[in-house]
Amino acid sequence: SLTYPASCVKLVFLAAAMQWSRENGLPHDHLDEHLRLMIVESSNVATGHVVDALSGAPNLPEATEGSEEYTAWLEARRYPARFLDEHGLLGDQIVVHKTFPSNSGDSPTGAEALARETEGMNRMSPNLIAELMLEIVHAAIEPEANDYMRELLRRDRWSDHSYFGSGLPPGSINESKPGLAYDTREDVARILLPNGQEFILAIFTDGRSGNSSLGTFASMLIDRLDLRRGCPARIRVTTEDVDCSLTGHWSLGELRRDRFGRTYLYHAGVGPQAQAVWDLEVPESGFYEITVWFPQAPELATDAPFVVEHAGGISDPIRVDQQGRGGQWVRLGDFYLTRGGGRVILSNDIADPHQLVIADTVQATLWPPMSPEPGTDVIVDNDHVAPHYIETGEWGMSPWLGHDGRTYAYGHTGTDAIATFTAPLTEPGLYEITTHFRAGPNRATGAVFEIESADGLQTATIDQTGQDMVWRTLGTFRFEAGDAVVRLRADRSTGGPVVISDALRLCLVE
């Protein structure tokens, strides 16, 4: 069936832009200024610029149906539709219009308004857009531009631009283009689970004002089809389990059951302190992603405080908006838990005593062990296993996201904390080394890296202050084929209290 695709139509514009660039003898990233915003941020204005470029037909201020000028304009605007048709993916779909508000106005005018009247809204099939995504990720469409397109489509699972992400296990790869408009939520994604199971999932909805149901559906689908088999351990504890204990007076939820068919408990913010405690008792030591699930209701707290007891101590309260984020898994963070350990605590310490906190289900999912791929362009992440990444001394694990949507570690300058990155290189040569980290005002201005190069032991110093996540260059160094070792040394770093250990990239340049 056909339905309004919202911004999922931008996947078509992306693929068509790769063909348009090739046909015009241009590099595939020629329109990157607009394509990146169109796909990554889902910018409608950028989308308008892409459509104008592909068609060579910006909006006509005035248009008359049947006129030669309008007919030629409309035929030019059909470039994305012709692209789909050439690949056998058009069917009855309507792929003509920009997404509004756009670069030509807040709403359609002139020829764009007439086209909306005569052609109808964009209409697409989830089956056909799923086939388009399949052909993109398997390089059946514009193979020279495959890496570029997939880099734009890669999503952090917990991004606001990833509607399936909350239902995927940690370590999953999610390449998607979601859509949001009116009362619809859509998403089309290529999903690769940590066990190697790969599938394309496309869902178009009507009347869904929130995105929570898409992630919940993805999780249930993975379970129903037994696709999770072979993924790392997952533990769930509900308020009905013996591993959940309560202090204070909690009331049984009467209005609805949760998604697991079990009951949930609620407590008002007023009165003496009450706690719900989930003992996770994880089966093996490792980094776990901890998430919570609860129904959504307008009377719930916007600042429900969850605390995680982990191997490194007790987290600060993690405030969760239960009023606006219910009906989906909500991430508390990634924590190192030792075998048999792990605990999550929810209290009624909220600002508004007239609101309620809900205790329902806690989930802990082990991150899969990860290793870098050998090659001439190698990224080593702090989430990789030994011998590729090793920490000595005292390091902390940040609750914020680092490289590739994973964790990063922090140590204190002047301590004996050392992080060792080992990159498996397949060819000798001159390699550029860059480091990825979340910059911040409390970082070291002189973070010291020690490089075991073919020319001997060398050092490089960088400034880790600033804002946001960045890549910064350490320099170029010569290595033989084999293991290339780089150490981040907190004992030699200066100029701020914290050094960040996240990811290193070694790329052959000569």
Describe the structure.
The structure is a single chain. The model has no long low-confidence stretch (mean pLDDT 92). The radius of gyration is 26 Å and the shape is globular. It is built from nine helices and 28 strands. It has 510 residues and is of the alpha+beta class. Strands 5, 8, 10, 11, 12 and 14 form a six-stranded antiparallel sheet that branches. Strands 18-21-26-23-24 form a five-stranded antiparallel sheet, with no helix packed on it. Strands 4-16-9-13 form a four-stranded antiparallel sheet, with no helix packed on it. The protein has helices at residues 9-23, 32-40, 44-55, 68-77, 79-86, 110-119, 126-137, 146-153, 212-224, and strands at 173-181, 184-192, 198-204, 234-238, 244-247, 251-252, 265-268, 275-279, 286-293, 304-310, 313-314, 318-320, 330-337, 343-347, 356-359, 361-366, 377-381, 389-392, 396-397, 409-412, 418-425, 429-438, 446-453, 456-462, 469-479, 482-494, 498-501, 503-508.
Major sheet size, sense and barrel closure: 6 strands, antiparallel
Report the principal-axis shape. globular
Give the amount of beta strand, in percent: 25-35%
Average pLDDT figure: 92
Give the strand tally. Answer: 28
Uncertain segments are none
Going by helix content, strand content and strand pairing, the class is alpha+beta
Number of helices: 9
- Report Rg: 26 Å
Helix content: 10-25%
- Termini, distance in Å? 53 Å
